[in-house]
Amino acid sequence: MREESVSVEIGGCHQDDARIVFDTLRACYASDRTAADVPQRLHETRPAVWLGTFEVAETHTCPPPADLSATVEADAQGGYWAIDRLRTTLDSLFTVRDLTTSSGDQERELHVLLGNKLGNK
Question: What is the H or E stretch that residue 23 is in?
Fold first, then answer.
């Protein structure tokens, strides 16, 4: 099986919401983040950004996420197939609104806004 990793950057949200998104993706895919990797806010006024890498070639069972307290901005970078796979997973778990996308020769970037999906529970 081929390796297909996606880098995910989350910002502009409360650290608990970042954790919900990362925990949900970690349940779906192998990741460099562990359960002990809890997003921390290290400064009161500076914006926080949290990063994770997810191996999307093989999907595990994805349980519904906990409710987010607000929308979450997420940026993802990876190959075309990997980004499409991640987007399909995000669509199944969250309400997803495209903010921007850009494509290069080998990689694609996706900038989305994630919200609670009605009927997840």
Answer: helix 15-28
Kindly state whether residue 10 falls inside one of the protein's structural domains.
yes
Question: How many independent structural domains does the chain possess?
Answer: 1
| Residue 51 forms part of a structural domain | yes
DSSP string, 39-81: -----SSSPPEEEEEEE-SS----PPPPPPSS-EEEEEEEEHH
Whole-model pTM: value is 0.84
In a domain, 25, yes or no: yes
Give the structural domain span for 86. Answer: 5-58+69-116
Residue 115 CA to residue 121 CA, distance in Å, equals: 14
pLDDT per residue rounded down to tens, the chain (121 residues): 566 999 999 988 888 999 999 999 999 999 987 767 666 666 666 667 889 999 999 888 899 999 999 999 999 999 999 999 999 999 999 999 998 777 777 889 999 999 998 765 4
Residue 15 vs residues 43, 57, 59, 80: alpha-carbon distances, Å: 12, 27, 25, 29
